[in-house]
Each structure stands twice: as structure tokens, then as C-alpha cells.
Amino acid sequence: MSVMTMVQSINNALDIALAESQDLVVYGEDVGVEGGVFRVTQGLQKKYGEERVFDTPLAESAIVGAGVGMAAAGLKPIVEIQFSGFVYPAFNQIVSHVSRLRNRSRGKYTVPMVIRMPYGGNIRALEHHSESMEALFSHIPGMTVVIPSTPYDAKGLLLSAIEYGDPVIFMEPKRIYRAIKQEVPEEKYTIPLRKAKVIQTGDHLTVVTYGALVREVLRAAMKAKEKGYSIEIIDLRTISPLDRDTVVDSVKKTGRFLLVNEGPSSFGVGAELMAVVIEDAFLHLEAPPSRLSGYDTVPPLPKGEHHYFHGPERIFYEMEKVLKF
Amino acid sequence: MNYIFKFPDIGEGIHEGRIVKWYVNKGQSIRSGDPVVKMETDKVVTDIPSPRDGTIVSRHGSEGELVNVGDALVEIALLGESEQTASSETKASHVAIVEEKGFGVVGKLEVAGDSAYLPVSEEGRLIRSDGVAGLKKKVLATPTARAMAKDMGVDINAISGSGPAGRVVKNDILRAVDGSSKIPIPKSAGEQLPELESPAVTLEPLTQIRKTIARNMIRSKQSAAHMTVFEQVEVDRLVDLRKRLNDKLSEKEMRLTYLPFILKAVGAALTQYPRLNSQMDMEKEQLIIHHDVHISIAIDTPDGLMVPVVRDVNRKGLLALASEMAVLAHKAQLRTLQLADFQGGTFTVTNYGAIGGTYGVPVINYPQAAILGIGRIMKSPVVRGDQLAIGYLMPLSLSVDHRIVDGAESARFIRRVMDFLSEPDSLLLV
Amino acid sequence: MFDQYNPLEDKMFQVMDQEGQIVQPQEVLALSDDEIFEAYKFMLYARTADLMSVSYQRQGRLFTLPPNLGQEAIAAAAGKQIGVQDWLVPAFREMGAWLLKGARLSDIFMYWGGYEEGSRFSEAPRFLPSTVPIASQLQHGAGIAYAMKLKKDPGIVFAFVGDGGTSQGDFHEALNFAAVWKAPLITIVQNNQFAISVPVAKQTASKNLAVKALAYGIPGIKVDGNDYLAVYSVVSKAKQYVAQGLGPVLIEALTYRRGAHTTSDDPSLYRSDDEEKLWELKDPLRRLRLYLSGKGLWQESLDHELEEEYRKTIEQEFAIYESQAPYPLENVFQYHYQDMPENLKRQLKEQQRFIKWQEVNQ
User: Fold this and answer.
1) With an 8 Å Cβ cutoff, are B107 and A126 in contact?
2) Which of A242, A307, C75, C344 has the maximum number of C-beta atoms within 10 A of its C-beta?
3) What's the ipTM?
4) Could you please report the per-residue DSSP string of C291-334?
């Protein structure tokens, strides 16, 4: 058992996976020698060699596209996109091939690939370094989107994703890369994909969230507790395919629902969850399901960030609206 | 006021530097942009310029010394800015940011301190049975039904539903409101109505009774197809009978009003025309015809209209009815009527004649089928044979639910009641 | 060879001219006359199947498809040298190579006839399905090549792309990656001079397409794509080069798209009859006929016989496709994940319910 940050736990997961399977390769920009700009792949090239852990030329489309070929040829690529804001050139490969090759070839070729990328904002960074576009990926048929919220979960989920036979987009909330330390066992363990987790039970309101906001929601829930409200908090972990049952069972119990996330509000993850809640828990609702997401704007540069990224107070304000309906 | 200039994070990911050379001394005046100190970091050797105009009050650190990002370098007395308190340029971060060199390339990430960390999760390693969150007893209901229940002040979870899959539907709520105890809706904190003090109006908050009356009236009008029949009946013999009977009563006993006679007449007529003693069940598409006659009596109280029930009218004598009604009236004045006193009525009589009205269009007491309004008995011109005479006329207004009762039947019923009232002897034959 | 035919000098490698005359005597010895005759017969078969496909499409029995007319030599000459352990990463206009890799004509009909099953090529290993986004397959080729190298697998990757595809970013990125990796990738650019209606002169300001190889530090060569012998020779040399682990090679095979872009395209809108007639004379089968005639191996009646025979075979293959069971509903859902997620299960069930409802209410 060690105390690890998420950066360390992900590094640990990659280490375990590389040791276990010779077909695994880890690559991207700056992941080899430098060990990744966030040090997530630190030490891996030294340990496993340049052929399996390497730096590529600066071309996101090819990073993903070549991965498709490698997967078809029997390797298991774990590719890194340096920031989620840089993934857009690779979008064609992701939508057209990564998620489709199995269907196109009727299962003859599959793409057991993991595309890792730091995502999310509120870190006082330049533009394109604060993106939260998980909804775009979640809308792709054949794709799986995973977002961990703690070091323990990050390791278990990544190991599951690596073992999984279909592509996974693994989005790492960079804001909490080092902000949370947790006891993490050094041995291998996995956390199932497609399974949300109830991290706090409650009776009055179901709040669904993920990534860096789990911490903020917990803080808001503490404030709510002082006012006599009991909040049930669910960490989605796998955004798509969604664990409908966990969310719906909770809403059937509490009758109220709130989604909290970062990305743009309209046409986002919140819209899907609200639809699911209405479809399956309509007769149990005491208030309309609601969502607190980012604005339908580009995340502002650092001086304007405080307007955009919602903290525990704003989350509590939103909770109260639903509770008092 | 003094400005404390701290060693800034100049963005290279550094966290400390070495003072190479001071450019300023205590007491020296300085302009914004002038170099304050030469610093050496792992990445660069650079001059740090002053962010403000002013005079150097003090210097911290000597040449060759190591300082951390965020440590004070100099304190500057500012020119002409007296209202500012000593502020710092870089916000002192409450989290110990020990950023590693070159970490992340852009942005600032929070770094957890060493003292606090989360405990390990059990998931994925040990076999664990997750306690299934027990579902609290809750009913199925559409949001509109929930809204209705909330408006009517009823706890929807206490209502049993007759809809699909046990869903609570509107009628269930309406039925429940009729007899259930009401749970007051707490007012949400901080949402008081704005005070409107104006001489032209007085604001009277609605009492529970007023609210109930309002609801019931609307409900009745919206469900029943009201139809009203007006009649007048010659009651000379009744007037006479009442006088003679009252004369026989001792002072201790109840004095008879006309109401007990009316109740007996109505009760007898209902035995013959039971459809006016029924209620409509639209959900099950049936008519519930009551065998017993329990008559709701409208009583005017200072708080508003109340309609307690006199039970089993057909089995009670005049005196029993009279005393029961007196008791109810008394309780009404004292506000001691219980819920049970209001339940079970199958027909309603409302006597506004005592106040002085003649005809009315009474509103049916939901969910009954009919209501009889009694107007004031007055000496009026009457035709007997071919002669004009003076007689006592009692005006009657019968409202029926036309869904249940047709015109002909309501006419026959009221005729029967009139027969009993004009010839009260016939009540003995019932 | 790569040095002799420096693309900067716009030199084009040719063995047999359009009249069937050998202009590079020493190269001819690489193939015997029998082998050349076999190649001709195969190309005739491929052409017959191609023409019949267009005909089937016009009859409404196949959907939109891209004719191969005029380009058969490239697919045949390259395809002949793609071994079982080698990879074929197709574009969509090299049917001859597909057949030589082991695809059945019935598979190909299945694909253009609207079944994904057609792309399975169950009898042809190491053969990616054709895909629509132009040039994106080249990145897959680069990745496969890297994997071959890492696994010390002798397989070589043959990737096809058209002149239009060389403008795509994916072309550049793939060649760059493969070059940096020194991966065993042979990229064959079929320059048929049209990307739908856009002529290659509007596609690039480069002298030719082979010259782009120099930017990546890899060999590039321009070859007469209608000359079977030349293409065969170049591909053979490229294989040898790549097999030594020296890195990727770019081959530009110049040809002409004698047919339309697809069966939904009308070339008369953007090119002249004269041009088409000019290239008819350069047709790959025409020059082989002239050559083989000269060797007493071909006469016109032979074509008729062969075509008859091929027609029968092709019709049989087509019949296999046409007798396919109707597309089952489950197949729409089945192949997206190794394990179907809840949302797909639900959607499938709902559609199944609808179908039952239809049956009852009909």
C-alpha cells in the first residue's frame, strides 16, 4: 500500500500493464524521454524500452490512426493526447475508425485501444487547455468514455480499460492530478467499466457528477447537511455507456435529481441524464430533473475563470433550488 | 500605505531563487518598472522590476541568500494612495504549491499537502455486498398529480392509488381531500409576500376553512351537472302542527323548528327516489346508491359555512333530530366539530329561509347527488278552488346532478317532498 | 533504381510502351511470356467482373460503386506480390489486388451490394476493409507496419491511395510517422489524374506525386501505371528495399481513370472525348494484347472465349451474393461492442416490439 496522487496511480497502472503484456505499447508526444508533461509516464521508457514506450512526431491524427493499425495487427496501444484540447485533429480517426472498425469488419478486426488525455479546467491555463468535451465522445456509437475522480479509481478503471476489448477514451481530470492523495495498493486490481458508484447515500436529492467536481459536490453536500438536507451523491465514472440503473434507482428513492459537470450545458451529459431520469423515474419525481454545467461558452482565460467554474457554493445554491421546488 | 512586493512566480515553474544583487536601498525612491533585484533561478538570471511607484521602506534578504516564491522582497511606501491597505501582488496561496519544474507546461495545479490523504477504497479487490438502498414508501404519481396534492395540502404518499400500477390519480386525491387530515405546507423561508399597505384594500389571509370551502365549491361545480328546480308549497297545516307540538313540549325540552319536519319529509321521499341519495363514481363507471339517509345540514358560523351530518334520518323521530341538530349547531359555534361530524352525508339541506332568502341555486355538496334549499315561509296569496286566499308558502330550490337525476325524476321527488310538507300527517304512514 | 528515377527530374519508369514494345530489355527477363500471359488473363477477368459490376448497378442489383476501368495493371502487378503474410490496406479502386489477396468476388459483391459481411474477407487474412474517409487508411498502414517491426514479423504493408488522397493531412502524417519509425510500408499512389472532377494539376503544385517522398526522407519513384511489367518491377524492388528494414517507399503509378468516379458520376461534365480517346490507346490490356500477339500468344477470338468463361464464373459469384439472407435486425446492433450495453439492448428490444406490433396490426 502506498499513498499516491492520481498521476502516480495512473503511472502505476501503466507499469503493471506493460509488465503483464508484451503487446502493450504506450506512446504520444513527450511521453517517452520526458515522461509526459504531467509526468504520468515517467520512468516507463527506461523500464520497458524505446520500442514499447516512445515519442511520436507532433500529429494527433496519426497518433490515433496509427494506433488503429497497431490494434488491427495485434498490439494493444495506449496512446496519450497531451491535452484534450488537442484531440480534435484525431476526431476523424476516432469517429470513423477507432469506434467503427469492429462493426465495419464484423468483428474480424477490433480496436482494443485506450486514448488517454488530461481534460477539464479551472487551472489558470491558456486556451485549449481547459476543455471538457466528453459529450462529443459519448455521442459516438461504439465508444466508451471513462472519467475517474480519485487515485484509487483511476488505477482500477485504467486497468479495466486496458483489458477491455473495445476502445476507451480515458479522460483524466487534470485539476485533481495532484490535489488528492489516497492509499492505493500496489498490486493489480480492476474497477468495472459501465458501473457508477454511490459515494454518499441520502434521502432528499440525487446528485450525479464525475471527475474533479466530485470533490466540490461533496463540499456542497456538507453545507446542505447543515441545513438538514441529506444528499445522495453518485460518481458516474463511465459516462458512456451509462449505468442507468444506479442513477434511476437513486432518483426513485429521492425524487429529485441534479447533474453537476463542467462542459457546456446544452446538448451535454446533463441532457442525457435528465432524459434517462424522466424516461425511467417519471412517476417518482417531485421536481423537474436539473443540471448545473458550464455555460454554452468557451471557458474563459484565467482572469475570467472564477465566473465560469462553479464551486461548492454555486452547487449548493443549485441543490437548494431543486430541494425547494 | 505600504505595498509588500513578494517574489513572484515568473512562470517558469520555479519555486525559489537566489538574490544576486540588490539595485535599491532603504529610503530610495523607485518608479514602476525600475529593477529592484537581480535573481538567479534554475532557469534564468533575471532582473525583477518594481510594480509600483514609491519609496523603499525595507528590504528582505541579503545578496547570496535563497528566497522562495511568495517571500517578501521589498516593502514600498506608495505615493498618494492612502486608502489602500498593504496588499500583496501575488495572492498567497492557501495550498502549499510546490510545483515541480516544468510540470504540466501550462497552468497551475493544486498540489495536496502531505498530511491529509483519502483512505483506500475496497472496490475491485474484496468481495463486497453493496447494501441495496431501501426504497422509502413512495407512491407513483405524475408531476401534475403531485402538484395538485401539494396545492390541496395533502400528503400524496398517504393516498392509495387507483390508477395503472397503483398510480395515484386526480380522483384519488380529490377523494382523499374530502376526508383526510391535512398536512400544512411549510412556508419556504424567506419567501414572504411583499407588504402592500394601501387604504383601498384590506388583506385577509385565507383560513383553512375558507380554503376548504373554496376547493369544495369549485370541485362540486366542476364535476356535477347542476340543474335546479324551483317550487313553492303550501304549508299551512305544517305551521299549525308545529305550533301545536311545541305547545305540548315542556320548557326543558327542545323546541321544534321546521327543519326536523323537512328532514323527515326529505328522508321519506329519498326512500322512494333513492337515486337522489347516491353519488357518481366515474372511474368505475357506477352509481353508488346509499340505503341509509344521512343529511348534511348547512350551518352558518362566523368562520364560514359548515356542513355537519345528521345520521340515519329515517330512523329518528322529530325530537331526536331536533336535539341532534342543536348539538351540532352548538359545536359549530364553539368550533369543536370533529372530522367524523362531516363525513358520510348523502343529501344536503340548506335553510337560508331563516336568514330571509326566498329562492336560490344551491351548490351541491360534493360528492352528493342533490341539495335542497329552503326559503322563508311567508304569508302569500294562494288560489284555493277558484278563490283567492292567504296561505303560508315555503319556497323550495332543489339542485340535482343531472348526470344522475333526470328532470322528470327530480320533479317527482320534489313533488313527494311537497306532499309530505303540505300534509305532514302522511309522515306517520312512512 | 530509386536513384536512377529521381522524381525531381520527373523521370517515369517504363518497360513496355503503349504499343506493346519493350523499351527496357533487361527488365523483361523478370517475367516469362507465360507469366505475362497469365497476368493478361487475370486482368481480363478483373475487367470483365468490373464491367459486369457496373452493369449490375445499372440494373439496380448493386449500389453505387467505383469502376476500375483502365487501372487494372497496378492492382494486378502489385497484388501479385502481396504475400499471405503481407498486409493489404485498400483504398477502393484496386479490385484486382483484393482478388489476389484472397477475397472472393461474392464478398466484393456483398460489400457493394450493401452488406458489411462483404468486408470480412473470411478467406483473406491481413486485409483491412475498405473505408470511405480518403487517405485515413494510410495511418492504419503506418501503425500496422510499426507493429510488424516491433513483433519482428516479416510482413510488409501495402497501402493504396489516389492522387486526391495525397492532399489529405493523413497522407503526410502517415508517411512521416512510417519514415521516422523506418517501418515496412509501401504506399502506392494510383494517380489516375482525377479526384472526381478535380484534375491532378489542381490537386498539387508539386512536379509529380512521387517527389513528395523526398520531404519524408524516403525513396519515391514514378512509374507508368498502365505498364504491367514496370509496375511489377518497381513493386518488387520496393519489397526488397523495405524487407531490409530501410523504411517505407512511395510509388506513384501514373494511369488514367477511363471510367467515371463512381456509377453516380458523369465525366462528360469535366473532361473531353479527345483526352479519353488518347488514354484508350494507353490502356494496359491493349498494350499487352499487342505484345502477346507479337509473340503469337493472343488472338481476338481468345478474348471472346475467355470472357464467356469468366462471365459464367462471375455470374455464379453474383448469385451467391443475391441469395444472401435478408439483413437481420440484430446485425445492426451486434458488432459495436464485445458485450452489448444496456442502451443498445433497449433500442433493439423496442424495435423488435414494433415489428411484432406491425405483424399484429397488418
Assistant:
1) yes
2) C75
3) 0.88
4) HHHHTT---HHHHHHHHHHHHHHHHHHHHHHHTPPP--THHHHH
Which CATH architecture does the domain made up of B2-111 adopt? Beta Barrel (2.40)
C139 contact residues in A (CB cutoff 8 A): 61-62, 64-66, 68-69, 93
Higher pLDDT, C58 or B80: C58
Q: ∠ at Cα C230 (C226, C234), nearest 5°? A: 120
For Cα atoms B82, B85, B90, give the angle at the middle one, nearest 5 degrees.
Answer: 130
Asked if the B209-429 domain carries CATH number 3.40.50.10210, the reply is no
Q: Give the separation between CA A320 and CA B419, rounded to whole angstroms.
A: 66
With b for 16 or more beta-carbon neighbours within 10 A and e for fewer, the A66-95 pattern comes to bbbbbbbbebbbbbbbbbbbbbbbbbbbbb
Strand, helix or coil for residue A315: helix
- Taking CA–CA distances from B132, the nearest residue in chain A reads A249
Which residues 181-220 of chain A have a CB within 8 Å of chain B? Answer: 181-185, 189-192, 197-198, 201, 203
User: Does residue C115 have an active-site annotation?
Assistant: no
Q: Give a three-class secondary structure readout of chain B.
A: CEEEEECCCCCCCCCEEEEEEECCCCCCEECCCCEEEEEECCCCEEEEECCCCEEEEEECCCCCCEEECCCEEEEEEECCCCCCCCCECCCCCCCCCCCCCCCCCCCCCCCCCCCCCECCCCCCCCCCCCCCCCCCCCCCCCHHHHHHHHHCCCCHHHCCCCCHHHCCCHHHHHHHHHHCCCCCCCCCCCCCCCCCCCCCCCCCCCCHHHHHHHHHHHHHHHHCCEEEEEEEEECHHHHHHHHHHHHHCCCCCCCCCCHHHHHHHHHHHHHHCHHHHEEEECCCCEEEECCCCCEEECEEECCEEECCEECCHHHCCHHHHHHHHHHHHHHHHHCCCCHHHHCCCCEEEEECCCCCCCCCCCCCCCCCCEEEEECCCEEEEEEECCEEEEEEEEEEEEEEECCCCCHHHHHHHHHHHHHHHHCHHHHHHC
Q: Do B104 and A174 touch (CB under 8 A)?
A: yes
Give residue-wise pLDDT tens across range B9-60: 665 456 678 899 999 998 899 887 888 898 887 656 778 888 888 899 889 8
Residue B352 to residue B300: CA distance in whole angstroms: 9
Whether the model pTM is above 0.80 = no
Closest-approach residue (CA) in chain A for C174: A62
Q: Which residues of B touch A250 (CB under 8 A)?
A: 133
Contact A175 B110 (CB under 8 A): yes
Cα distances from B292 to residues B175, B264, B274, B410, in angstroms, run 20, 13, 9, 19
All residues of chain A having their beta carbon less than 8 Å from the beta carbon of residue B109 are 123, 174-175, 177-179
Task: Please check whether the domain covering B122-197 is classified as CATH 4.10.320.10.
Answer: yes
Annotated catalytic residue, options C47, C93, C104, C257? C257
What end-to-end distance do the CA atoms of chain C give, in Å?
71
Q: Same CATH topology for B122-197 and B209-429?
A: no
How far is the alpha carbon of C111 from chain A, nearest alpha carbon, in Å? 10
| Single-letter amino acid code for the residue at B54 | G
Distance CA A217, CA A215 (A): 5
Domain ranges of chain B: 2-111, 122-197, 209-429
Is the Cα dihedral B259, B260, B265, B267 positive or negative? positive
- The answer for residues whose C-beta is within 8 angstroms of residue C242's C-beta and 6 or more apart is C156, C184, C185, C186, C248, C249
Q: Which domains does chain A have, with CATH numbers?
A: 2-184 (3.40.50.970), 197-323 (3.40.50.920)
**B216-229: per-residue pLDDT in tens?**
888 888 888 999 99
Catalytic positions of B: 402
